[in-house]
Amino acid sequence: MVRDYVIEHLADEDAVLVIDETGFLKQGKASCGVARQYTGSAGKITNCQIGVFASYVSRHGHAFIDRALYLPKAWTDDPVRLKATSVPAEVGFATKPKLAAAMIERAIAARVPFAWVAADTVYGVGNIENALRQAGKGYVLGVSSAHWFGSWNREQPLGGSAEEIAKALPARDWQRLSAGAGTKGPRLHDWCYLELADLEAEDFNDENHGLWTRGLLIRRNIADGDLAYFATWCPAGTSIATLVNVEGHRWAIEDSFETAKNEFGLDHNETRSWHGWHRHVSLVMLAFAMMAAIRRQANRQIPKKTKQPPARISHLSSAGRSKKSAG
Fold first, then answer.
1. Are 29 and 131 in contact (CB under 8 A)?
2. Is residue 215 part of a domain?
3. pLDDT exceeds cutoff 50 at 77
4. Which CATH number do you get for residue 238?
5. Domain with 52 in it
């Protein structure tokens, strides 16, 4: 399996599992799951398929480990279309967060080593949070500006929408931090982290122990002041720098989508059926994983550069040396 291959080469206990989606632009109505729907790939509502992916991101590299084709209700409510594209009988309508939750559950069941999950606002609330708390995994999940946050057992009680809380923050609460290296250097933003409540891990799973913190992480764009909000769950005492770093890992899956499409033909296929889509995507995932493994191996083998002493150049001719020696 692709997942096993990725873990064999990139495994790390502190890895981040990143969830995101990408669009596959299509013409016509016959391809499985195709519909007019929004895709960030085009930045608009257009005729396309949507695939939800899980990417494994560690200090050794990153690669996809799971995928699922999203079927809109217009498809799941139409038995004729489902049969024509060979959709398995047990497949019904599932929201994107539900598809993501299933991927996380599969990774946990397979004992994939990871410590965190990161995702954008499409996946940030609901069953995913509960599943991760029960599994003892931390998360940095995007939420909307209207998402409500409240604190308890704090000296200064806090409550309101994410946007309201952000507007009330004093200037001293913001820190300028990098979410990782980008193509043009460090990806700097202004950040604020608010600890809302400390909870015992045992409250969610008897096998987990220790104090964990529920919080709100806010990112502010330096150029235009645009804000993004994230619900967080982490061991008590986790630094804001760590949470920012986890959120920054989401960039890896965006890079993966671009590379997989441009170099491996992720979105270049004429498959119409459910099985055809999954087989094509799985083959591309394997090719991408092999590239990631080769890159890691190549980076290991790069010898360290050592400075060679400058060559000594004599300005005397052989005749001159002979005369000097004779003298």
1. no
2. yes
3. yes
4. 3.90.350.10
5. 2-322
- The tens digit of pLDDT for each residue in 7-24 reads 999 999 999 999 999 999
What pTM was estimated for this model as a whole?
0.88
41 phi/psi in degrees, rounded to 5: -60, -35
Beta bridge partners, 117, equal 17, 139
Element (H, E) at 149: strand 148-150
pLDDT value at residue 3? 97
Q: How far apart are CA 137 and CA 173, in angstroms?
A: 27
The tokens describing 85, both together, are: 């594209």
Centroid of chain to Cα 318: 67
One DSSP character per residue, 170-233 reads -GGG-EEEEEEEETTEEEEEEEEEEEEEEEEGGGT-TT--SEEEEEEEEEE-TTT--EEEEEEE
Q: Phi and psi (nearest 5°) for 317?
A: -75, 165
Note the helical H segments in the chain.
2-10, 73-76, 79-84, 96-109, 127-135, 162-167, 240-248, 250-264, 274-301, 318-326
Residue 327, domain member (yes or no): no
> Tens digit of pLDDT for each residue in 258-314?
999 999 999 998 889 999 999 999 999 999 999 999 999 998 865 666 555 555 444
Strands in 8-72 per DSSP E: 16-25, 35-39, 44-58, 61-70
List of residues 6+ apart from 98 with CB closer than 8 A: 127
Asked if 62 and 88 count as a contact pair (C-beta separation under 8 A), the reply is no
Tokens of 86: 């060979």
How many distinct structural domains can be found in the chain?
1
With beta carbons less than 8 A apart as the criterion, state whether 159 and 166 touch: no
What residues contact residue 129 under an 8 Å CB cut-off, 6+ apart?
139, 141, 231, 233
